[in-house]
Amino acid sequence: MRLKNKSALITGGTSGIGLATARLFIAEGARVAVTGRDESAFERVKAELGENALVLKGDVRSLKDMRAIAAELKEQFGGLDIVFANAGWAFPSAVNDINEDLYSEIMDINVKGVVFTLQAVLPDLREGASVILNTSFVAQTGQHGISLTAAAKAAVRSLARSWSYEFLDRKIRFNAIAPGAINTPLISKWGMSDEWVRDRKAEFAEAIPVGHMGKPEDIAYAALYLASDESTYVVGTELVVDGGASQL
Ligand SMILES: NC(=O)c1ccc[n+]([C@@H]2O[C@H](COP(=O)([O-])OP(=O)(O)OC[C@H]3O[C@@H](n4cnc5c(N)ncnc54)[C@H](OP(=O)(O)O)[C@@H]3O)[C@@H](O)[C@H]2O)c1
């Protein structure tokens, strides 16, 4: 029970990495609120996570939504010990294919979303709280065709450093996790055929030194470490969990 009596918010906790992390945090004794936009998933997620979970609707790009979520959490939990700013979006695009809509979508979900999530919950973070930002292995190295997503995630990585300084006096720790290619529903949301998705996943797996994509639980365990009191001396860092993809 590494998170006994702790309260956590996980944005984008209705799918993939966020959902796996919610399951693990609850198993380790935490009360967890997860958020998402698509309400059609909420009943299934509630049933899966059980009575120690809240499932709340909100778009991380909306300060109004995030303030409403923060108000609900204040009422339900009293304060927060852990925030996993996990909601995010990735889409491959060569530089010539970037248009205004794609630019806004990638930058706003990944960067604005993290800024407003933090701003909304800031008054309710308890002393000693741990805030974990979800970045990506794509920002670790130069890669073809994913520059906008990589730039957005590099901005998020920078926020973990700056905010670590800004909140030293409140003993709030900020760290990032950079997942590698993780087998979640994300890629299936790109609007391509099942066959295309299967082929891309096979290509990803082949390019990863350990020979396979990661599981959402691989990231959940890293988040558990950063959320727990075992990591109180870890501040402003980025933990890369990518099967060696960006490091070997
Ligand atoms: N999977 C990978 O290979 C990989 C690699 C590196 C980094 N990451 C990062 O890991 C994080 C989670 O990704 P995942 O793979 O678990 O994706 P996923 O399965 O698609 O889950 C994404 C979650 O974020 C929520 N979300 C998306 N946009 C949102 C918004 N504007 N406001 C609120 N919630 C929003 C989704 O719910 P709704 O759609 O209902 O809003 C869902 O709960 C992302 O930040 C992603 O960039 C993933």
Query: What is the CATH C-level name?
Result: Alpha Beta
Structural class: alpha/beta
| Largest sheet strand order | 3-2-1-4-5-6-7
Estimate the helix proportion, in percent.
40-55%
Keywords: NADP, Oxidoreductase
Domain Ketoreductase: 6-180
Organism: Paraburkholderia unamae
Family: Belongs to the short-chain dehydrogenases/reductases (SDR) family.
Structure explained in plain terms:
This is NAD(P)-dependent dehydrogenase (Short-subunit alcohol dehydrogenase family). InterPro entries: KR_dom, NAD(P)-bd_dom_sf, SDR_fam, Sec_Metab_Biosynth_SDR. Keywords: NADP, Oxidoreductase. Belongs to the short-chain dehydrogenases/reductases (SDR) family. Helix 4 packs parallel to helix 5. The chain is 42% helix and 17% strand. It has one domain: 3-Layer(aba) Sandwich (Rossmann fold), CATH 3.40.50.720. The chain has 248 residues and is of the alpha/beta class. The longest helix is centred in the middle third of the chain and has 22 residues, at 100-121. The protein is built from 7 helices and 7 strands, in the order βαβαβαβαβαβααβ. The mean pLDDT is 98. The protein has helices spanning 16-27, 42-49, 63-77, 100-121, 147-166, 194-207, 216-227, and strands spanning 7-10, 31-36, 53-57, 80-85, 125-134, 173-179, 238-241. The structure holds NADP nicotinamide-adenine-dinucleotide phosphate. NADP nicotinamide-adenine-dinucleotide phosphate binds at residues 11-12, 14-18, 35-38, 59-61, 86-90, 109, 113, 134, 136, 179, 181-182, 184-186, 189.
